[in-house]
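Quick review question:
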């Protein structure tokens, strides 16, 4: 019995590094740029929506048809997700907590993926690791989502239910002020799965749509470049409505563009990369981009935190040198730590 669809999409692996690189530059804007350009680059954090849509697409593509909902399938699914995410996350979290001299409570709330639910803890440990909580929520709920979709439940209805649950949680817990657990509506929309569910569901919808349509490879480049252009338009629109230097804003218009519109050009781009033979798809499929894409998870985890702080403190406050350092270090950690641990955990725990 096949427990997973083993289809591998090379261009999408290369896209993972591009998304991580976008997030890097949103956190480290290059000095000397004109203010409008700085504001534009700050919105490169749409690399995170790219990750979320991509996760929805890949998890649905790999597991939707193969899901049999027996003990063996569930164990294989959760072991694969655990091996892929947790070992490296645990180690980098430990290093960051030790470096920042944070408490055991902070450590525990980080390694249990709970920090992403609390405004008081969201940037502790690995600051950017809040998005891992969001990803893990999707991974945990994906089997249930697939089961409901198989039973004919409309994906828009599921998405609406997830958003509603988020608003209800804020309504219940905001007055209690439990370390900011679902502390306000803006936080819920920007940092939690319930607010970001449209991105994941867009990926799931795309996987099911492409599975039904069974498109063939094309030499056209229309869809690919439409997706890229659409992303540029979204980034520009976000830069116009953002109200602070971080590029994050809890204003309604920013959230509408970011959470509900940005997944659309990402879906176009994914479709183009899979089915169109373009310069971009060939570039992303190259050996270098494959290596960078595979190490992009580690790159994302370490680009802010202990390693970047040690570098700028002891070597140089130069963004390009920092990028080179983080890139090579992420490759080394991927080859020497992440990949071996992934294989070890799967071998020990798989049924």
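Suggested answer, residue by residue:
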């Amino acid at each position: 019995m096949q427990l997973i669809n083993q289809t591998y999409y090379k261009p999408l692996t290369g896209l993972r590094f591009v998304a991580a690189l976008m997030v890097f530059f949103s956190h480290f804007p290059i000095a000397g740029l004109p203010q409008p350009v700085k504001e534009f680059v700050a919105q490169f954090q749409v690399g995170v929506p790219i990750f979320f849509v991509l996760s929805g697409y890949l998890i649905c593509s790999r597991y939707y048809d193969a899901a049999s909902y027996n003990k063996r399938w569930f164990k294989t699914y959760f072991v694969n997700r655990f091996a892929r995410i947790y070992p490296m996350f645990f180690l980098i979290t430990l290093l960051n907590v030790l470096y920042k001299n944070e408490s055991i409570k902070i450590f525990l709330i980080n390694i249990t993926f709970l920090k992403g639910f609390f405004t008081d803890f969201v940037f502790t440990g690995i600051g950017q690791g809040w998005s891992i909580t969001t990803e893990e929520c999707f991974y945990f709920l994906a089997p249930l989502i697939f089961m409901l979709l198989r039973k004919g439940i409309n994906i828009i209805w599921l998405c609406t239910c997830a958003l509603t649950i988020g608003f209800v949680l804020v309504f219940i817990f905001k007055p209690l002020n439990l370390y900011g657990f679902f502390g306000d509506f803006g936080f819920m929309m920007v940092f939690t799965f319930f607010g970001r569910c449209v991105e994941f569901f867009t990926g799931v919808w795309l996987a099911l749509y492409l599975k039904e349509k069974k498109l063939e490879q094309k030499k056209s480049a229309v869809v690919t470049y439409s997706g890229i252009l659409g992303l540029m338009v979204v980034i520009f629109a976000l830069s116009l409505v953002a109200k602070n230097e971080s590029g994050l804003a809890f204003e309604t218009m920013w959230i509408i563009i970011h959470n509900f519109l940005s997944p659309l050009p990402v879906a176009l781009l994914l479709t183009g990369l899979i089915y169109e033979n373009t310069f971009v798809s060939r570039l992303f499929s190259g050996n270098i981009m494959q290596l960078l894409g595979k190490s992009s998870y580690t790159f994302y985890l370490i680009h802010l935190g202990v390693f970047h702080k040690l570098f700028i403190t002891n070597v140089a406050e130069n963004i390009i040198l920092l990028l080179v350092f983080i890139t090579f270090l992420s490759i080394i950690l991927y080859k020497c730590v992440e990949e071996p641990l992934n294989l070890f955990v799967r071998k020990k725990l798989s049924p």
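Why it works: Residues 319-349 form the longest helix (31 residues). The chain has a mean pLDDT of 92.
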